[in-house]
Amino acid sequence: MANIKQIKNEYQEIVKSHSPKNKVMQNSLRAFWVGGIICTVGQGLSNLYMYYGLSKDDASMVATVSLVLLSAIFTAFNIYDNIGKYGGAGALIPITGFANSMVSAAMEYKKEGYIYGMGAKLFTIAGPVIVFGTIASVIIGIIYYFV
Amino acid sequence: MDMLMEYLKAFVVGGVICVLGQILLDKVKMTTGKIMVTFLLAGAFLTAIGLYQPLVDFAGTGATVPISGFGYALAKGAIEEVGKEGFMGAFTGGIKATAAGITAAIVFGYLAAVLSNPKSKS
């Protein structure tokens, strides 16, 4: 009996030593630098487009479009999923995470066809984002009209 | 040096916004969809009360690349369009300002999904 107890204790110690001590801290650090890098890449692209003569707003918009394209490509090659596993919210919060949510959901449901599978599942997460975003923009616009 | 500061600001502000998301993910156990909507609405709200624009001016893409920047673009678009076009601007401004991003996400997203296959879960 003592032996079993000892084994149990040893097991608990092994579990303890293998489970990360401060997971929130570690995840936050990862989210910080992954998210930071993605935003820095966006800044680099934006500066590049400004260098080629785009206005600041246009450059920022084209940079966003470029990030969306890059994210779609990275998702298609199953690379973005790994970035997401490592970076957590660092890969989720940037606009690349939004594009990733669309592509990966569509890929997942490819079997159900081009219309109800991919066409519909593209909006599993993007749908709510666009719905609430649009509603918010209309409400804000109306408030600004009357204020 | 200015250029370096610009990148550093984008990195730090973008990183901090993502850490806020990570805390919601780990501590509040929110789902990814809810986090995205929350950040989007927060960005739109902060823009409406005039707090997000200074952050964009300071951090550039560090504030516009996170999904809260999408909310910023929607709100800013609606506000500017109301100024130019009056009442109808509230209905056209948001989508107009974000049309490129939404269209890119739909077109590239669909194409990428058509041209690829999901990896079997290993």
- Report, as a whole number of angstroms, the end-to-end distance of chain A: 77 Å
**How much of the sequence of chain A is in beta strands?**
under 5%
Mean pLDDT of chain B, rounded to whole units?
A: 91
Spans of chain A of 5+ residues with little confidence (pLDDT < 50)?
none
Note the overall shape of chain A.
elongated
Number of helices of chain B: 6
The residue ranges of chain B in which pLDDT falls below 50 over 5 or more consecutive positions are none
Q: What percentage of residues of chain A falls in helices of 4 or more residues? A: over 70%
How many individual domains of chain B?
Answer: 1
Given helix and strand content, the structural type of chain A is mainly alpha
Largest sheet of chain B: none
* Structure summary, number of beta strands of chain A: 0
Number of domains of chain A: 1
Structural Rg of chain B: 17 Å
Q: Largest sheet of chain A at a glance? A: none
Q: Name the helicity range of chain B.
A: over 70%
**Average pLDDT over all residues of chain A:** 89
Account of the 3D structure:
The complex is a heterodimer of chains A (147) and B (122). Chain A is mostly helical and 147 residues long. Chain A has one domain. Chain A has eight helices and no strands. In chain A, helix 6 packs antiparallel against helix 7. The longest helix of chain A has 29 residues. Chain A starts with a helix and ends with a helix. Chain B is mainly alpha-helical and 122 residues long. In chain B, helix 5 runs antiparallel to helix 6. At the A-B interface, helix 2, helix 3, helix 5, helix 6 and helix 7 of A face helix 1, helix 2, helix 4, helix 5 and helix 6 of B.
